[in-house]
Amino acid sequence: MINKAKFDALSPQLQEALLSSAKEAGDYQRKLVAEDQQKIIDGMKEAGVEVLTDIDRKAFSDALGSQVRDMFLKDNPQGADLLKAVDEVQ
């Protein structure tokens, strides 16, 4: 993490190195997460859990969406703006 003033004070070469390294680290982290998720799913299947991959997202959201949102807002009153942004993206 670096603030804008510190970043702007770096030479263009260092800025590029920092941005490039951050992208590389982010790509690597996403790869590790995907691998871990697959291991978890495989373990669940081996334990006899039925894993659904083709779901009707709208039906799922309609069934649970308001309950999850209410719980989220109860714990995070400032989260209304975040939920609004999510809705706008969908």
From TrEMBL:
Gene3D superfamilies: Bacterial extracellular solute-binding protein, family 7 (3.40.190.170). Keywords: Receptor, Signal. Signal peptide: none annotated. Pfam families: DctP (PF03480). InterPro entries: DctP_fam, TRAP_DctP_sf. GO terms for molecular function: carbohydrate binding. The keyword Signal applies. One of its GO terms (biological process) is transmembrane transport. PANTHER family: 2,3-DIKETO-L-GULONATE-BINDING PERIPLASMIC PROTEIN YIAO, PTHR33376. This is Trap transporter solute receptor, dctp family. It comes from Salmonella enterica subsp. enterica serovar Bovismorbificans. The gene is yiaO.
